[in-house]
Write a structure and sequence with these properties.
Layout lengths: L6 H8 L18 E4 L4 E4 L34 H7 L11 H13 L2 H20 L30 H17 L9 H10 L8 E2 L5 E2 L9 H13 L14 E2 L4 E2 L4 H16 L5 H17 L6 H21 L7 H4 L4 H8 L8 H11 L8 H19 L21 H5 L5 H8 L6 E3 L1 E4 L2 E4 L13 E10 L9 E18 L5 E10 L7 E3 L5 E4 L3 E2 L10 E3 L4 E7 L6 E6 L26 H5 L14 H21 L7 H25 L5
Antiparallel strand pairs: 1-2, 3-4, 5-6, 7-11, 8-9, 10-11, 10-17, 11-12, 12-15, 12-16, 13-14, 14-18, 17-18
Helix pairs in contact: 5-8, 7-8, 8-9, 9-10, 10-12, 18-19
């Protein structure tokens, strides 16, 4: 038994304050935090503690926060230790009278801004007191769950909500990459914090002769063109039915940002779409680090987990967080980013996250809200609605001729086949197969099989969803050349687009559904290839098994097909990136030939070599010189205004306008030559 809650409710249920210097409930008093004086908040770094003692990252202080890391990973506090610390702690539940009186007086006699200042002073005093306190003094109360006799022996008492962790991590990544106002963790205050920490001197603000400050572009900075590509990929993508909401509606190409994203949208972005969008608009260092982060979340959210894989995942999580510390500023590392380091251990103790995150809780809360009929008494409405539904469910079990989820007929009959029991060698199925199907077949434009909803290409032409992508895994013999005497047999994935669905009827005995697809030529590099990051790309202008030859096989059994969807590549015409889809609301028991269950498809990334490198990092992106160009163009605009001011009033005529335009063009060319001569450096 454990609690499932979001992070603010973690403090209410456990008694540990999840804000401030010691915000991590797993690290407790050993939380590695640092106050950012310019950003006015705490950052939570120090992930090198989870590395091996002899790892070179521990001594590379110039690549991290400027300190050597000699500490070990903190150990979680057991339930018995918590009870021992809280024996003498007295806590009065409810709001205190003095606080309520003080709050009422402040609201009546002062403004909201003054109340915020007083709260900030109180918080600063509390932080100073926490610095001098012990771990026992950091607990707010003794959790009421310790009244249960077995609660003290639990290794996992309160779950970290993976749903909200994914949401906050994805928001941080998108905000800092797209430099969204109010959401970006990279701004002037973040650069000034680097000055205070005396690290990454190349990223410090530069003061120009005109009094302005220039912020050097970091390695994760994106140009306007790259932001357009990022947004265009998400704008054009079409996903299958039931996969997610319409992500393209949340893309604002004009302002180059994403808006109105729900928690599940962030989940889909972090698991599947974010690396696809970044492969064309980000550097290799940033792309590989974010892809590795997405792989970690993807494995954590898998249906099948193994202890050996989770042990490796703990090391991968510490490595990717250390790599992110080398790339992003300290303001990026909020408490939700830090909590990733504790998720593999909780997965080992609690199992798959599908039974421990907030998605079913949020859906149930939405169901309870729908019970409200009288907004004046919401609690009573919820109680009455829940009680009424229970009564209807109980009575439906005793109603005849009413099919419910409790008395619906079985899908598979349990009787033994009569012909088999009589000992017949030839069954009716074999006879009907020998006779052949009916010459009249049925044609469909949509079909549901294996937990997937398939549509033909013609049906989804005007739809915002994509359900025509198919993949079939076939055992194929491969030859290295025409003279190869030792062929190799292995599984080959054939990718295609569904064009037609037909149903063969064997005279009402049984039916067979066939899919006809346009299959990509997977035997030639002109039809399929891997990009520099390892993503599979296909070209539908190179097809095989089109049906033009007798030996072609354009049809496959519907039971053999799984679903994929494609994202158009904006740099190479005709090429598409393959993204696999997984069936929902079905039991995936895995392959019968293997003992393992369903496998989690991770992103192919070459981050292992990057994560293990000990060379100095390149923090400044040299190919981004938009700031220098904008400054020179602003000077050109001022010069243009001066030129226009000295031109006589008749400049508005055609001749005068041509003279002014020639002068402006000449000045613009001079400014452009000046920019190229300085190579983007401040002037």
């Amino acid at each position: 038994m454990w609690t499932i809650n979001d992070f603010p409710a973690y403090a209410i249920l456990s008694g540990w304050i999840t804000k401030g210097k010691y915000a991590c409930p797993c690290c407790a008093a050993e939380t590695a935090s640092r106050w950012l004086s310019n950003g006015q908040k705490f950052c939570y770094m120090g992930h090198r503690r989870w590395l091996a003692k002899d790892h070179p990252y521990r001594l590379q202080k110039h690549l991290f926060d400027g300190t050597l890391e000699l500490r070990e990973a903190p150990l979680s506090t057991s339930g018995s230790d918590i009870l021992l610390m809280l024996n003498d702690v007295q806590y009065r539940y409810g709001k205190r009278i003095k606080q309520r009186l003080r709050k009422s007086k402040a609201s009546c006699s002062s403004k909201k801004r003054q109340r915020q200042e007083s709260n900030f002073q109180e918080d600063s005093v509390m932080d100073k007191e926490e610095d001098e306190s012990q771990e026992a003094d950091l607990w707010k109360k003794r959790s009421i769950f310790f009244d249960l006799p077995y609660w003290v022996h639990h290794l996992l008492r309160h779950n970290l909500d993976v749903m909200h962790i994914e949401k906050n991590v994805c928001e941080n990544i998108i905000g800092i990459l797209l430099n969204v106002d109010g959401k970006s963790k990279d701004n002037l205050k973040a650069k000034l914090d680097l000055v205070d920490m005396e690290i990454r001197h190349v990223l410090h603000p530069e003061y120009l002769p005109n009094g302005r400050r220039r912020l050097p572009p970091a390695v994760y900075s994106m140009t306007k063109g790259e932001k357009d590509v990022f947004c265009q990929v998400l704008k054009n993508i079409k996903v299958p039915d039931g996969y997610s909401s319409n992500i393209s509606r949340c893309v604002n190409q004009k302002e180059r940002k994403l808006h109105s994203l729900k928690s599940h949208d962030h989940h889909i972005l972090l698991h599947d779409l974010l690396p696809i969008a970044l492969r064309l608009s980000s550097s290799k260092q940033v792309m590989c680090s974010i892809s590795e982060l997405c792989n970690i979340f993807k494995i954590l959210c898998g249906k099948v987990l193994s202890v050996e894989e989770l042990d490796k995942l703990q090391y991968r999580a510490s490595m990717v967080l250390c790599q992110l510390e080398k790339i992003f500023p300290p303001s990026f590392f909020t408490i939700m980013v830090h909590l990733l380091i504790h998720l593999p251990l909780q997965a080992k103790l609690g199992g798959p996250v599908h039974y421990r995150w907030m998605y079913p809780i949020e859906r149930f809360l939405l169901k309870l809200k729908n019970y409200v009929r009288n907004k004046k008494y919401p609690e009573g409405s919820i109680a009455e609605g829940y009680w009424a539904e229970e009564c209807v469910t109980f009575c439906s079990r005793y109603l005849e001729d009413v099919e419910t989820i409790f008395d619906k007929p079985s899908r598979n009959l349990g009787e033994v086949h009569d012909e088999v029991s009589r000992g017949r060698n030839v069954t009716e199925e074999v006879r009907f197969l020998a006779q052949g199907p009916n010459q009249i077949v049925k044609r469909y434009k949509g079909y549901i099989i294996n937990g997937f909803r398939f549509h033909t290409k013609s049906r989804e032409r005007l739809r915002r969803t994509q359900n025509s992508g198919c993949v079939v895994t076939s055992s194929t013999v491969s030859y290295a050349s025409a003279s190869d005497a030792n062929p190799v047999q292995g599984n080959v994935d054939y990718y295609g687009i569904l064009n037609d669905i037909i149903e063969l009827d064997y005279f009402q005995k049984f039916k067979v559904v066939l899919f006809r697809c346009d299959w990509v030529d997977v035997t030639n590099s002109r039809g399929i290839k891997k990009d520099k990051y390892g993503f599979t790309m296909v070209n539908f202008s190179r097809l095989i098994h089109t049906g033009a030859n007798v030996i072609d096989e354009p049809y496959v059994f519907s039971s053999q097909v799984k679903q994929v969807f494609y994202s158009k590549d904006l740099t190479e015409s005709g090429w598409y990136v393959v993204i696999r889809n997984h069936a929902r609301e079905v039991y995936d028991m895995g392959d019968e030939s293997t003992e393992s269950g369903p496998r989690t498809d991770c992103f192919p990334t070459s981050s292992e070599g990057i994560l293990s490198s000990n060379d100095d990092e390149q923090w400044v992106r040299e190919d981004v010189n938009e700031d220098a160009q904008l400054r020179d163009l602003s000077r050109f605009a001022e010069t243009r205004q001066q030129l226009l001011s000295v031109i006589p009033n008749h400049w508005t005529t055609l001749i005068g306008f041509a003279v002014a335009n020639n002068l402006n063009c000449k000045q613009h060319q001079d400014a452009k030559i000046k920019i190229e001569g300085h190579e983007g450096n401040p002037i």
